[in-house]
């Protein structure tokens, strides 16, 4: 009777990471009746108590005989009405009577009244024969049975209450065990944090593991900034490991520039190190690059890790871990807790996924409202400290706002050259970024439409903007620009420091989802004017 319904154990196993919640849910599920196929009745088992009598009809002092009234699982059709069999049993297992009844009654009270009438009409002779009772006493027994049926829900509630009271010791034991384990985990974590603090302050040797969600040649912030972070930390004498995703060659064409494809991780690692030497000017950085399996997801427009990332990391290196986009890395993560695997885990939040969830195709306010608490829970579970690049991001636990990114020295050198009084920019405005509607291309087209209308009225020339980049929405954005007859030209993606972009004077970034745009910082470093949203 108190066995949980089949199928709900999946939901219980899904929250086993919270023992107290699991214990509470098991307690609630254990109070539910067991269901065999489809429900046959809403009637609760009722009881009738009669004192045994001797041959002369005199009540005896022996144990009372209990009559239990219960529905059977079988039912059949009779004309236009469905019939169900109800059975009255004695406590010794003797079957007293089977009562067929109709299921046309809409409520439990109607069924109770119907059953009581049938029992009072058909059970009196049987009760008189079974208990040697007088006729008027058997009528009273029938009335008592009807009253018992009507009070069945109250009895069931009392039975459930008694069961929960009996189970309290076990549930309290589970809860106490969970609290003790949690307190022990907090104590161990405090010792680890004190240990890594001593290592850092004492200038001792410690290892830094950086895990990110993208890699070159995909020219995105989560590929460039973690790479530069690892290179400069290694150049400063730290022991560093950079873990980046490896996607199958068939998916590389979706995000890598045209013509770049790697058959093995070793080929991609060689390309990354070559870029560091040629574009970033870092030749003496000695750090390890590891690859973990990932898949590019068209819906999320990003790379998602497959399986447990920690199995690819050296177990002996467990000092400091930097999770680039911790919420992104742990959406589908199923492995050991990062905070248990490392002494100190720092999460750096790059992207405003709440805005993406609300504005991208297939999203909306509901999806954004669900994603917001999920990000909070994941950061709280897996990070000892969270760094937000700007305060445009949602509130997160243990978080501070700090710009921990920078730009390559190459951009600063370009900026010094443009600072000369004899330097002039030969071209106008441009935008560099992945071609997605979420990156603000819709706003850019709207702005250019307004400027076009004003220019046509005043006779001024139209503003031309060159776009450098590729993406899933490239064809749709090009079609929208052509339909509006805008001076918007599209070019393949290039490095921001390339000679093709040095002659532009104004960098336009219409995106409303930026946290701290790396491209904006690079444009400022090169001495350009920048047009961005006013927050």
Q: Can you characterise this structure?
A:
With 535 residues, the protein is α/β, with parallel strands linked by helices. It is 41% helix and 19% strand. The protein is built from 17 helices and 17 strands. The chain has helices spanning 9-13, 19-30, 108-122, 124-131, 135-150, 152-201, 221-235, 249-252, 265-278, 326-330, 338-341, 353-359, 365-382, 409-418, 441-458, 474-483, 518-525; strands at residues 46-50, 65-78, 81-90, 95-102, 207-211, 239-246, 288-297, 302-305, 320-324, 344-349, 385-388, 399-401, 427-432, 465-468, 488-491, 504-508, 529-531. The strands form 3 sheets. An 8-stranded mixed beta sheet has the order 8-7-6-5-9-10-11-12. The longest helix has 50 residues, at 152-201. The model is unreliable at 1-17, 29-51, 59-67, 73-81 and 126-138 (pLDDT under 50).
Principal-axis shape: globular
Strand percent estimate: 15-25%
How would you classify the helix and strand content by structural class?
alpha/beta
SS field, number of helical segments = 17
Rg (CA only): 37 Å
Q: Can you list the strand order of the major beta sheet?
A: 8-7-6-5-9-10-11-12
Average the pLDDT over all residues and give the rounded result.
78
- Distance N to C terminus: 60 Å
Number of strands: 17
Describe the sheet with the most strands.
8 strands, mixed
Fraction of residues in H or I helices: 40-55%
Low-pLDDT runs = 1-17, 29-51, 59-67, 73-81, 126-138
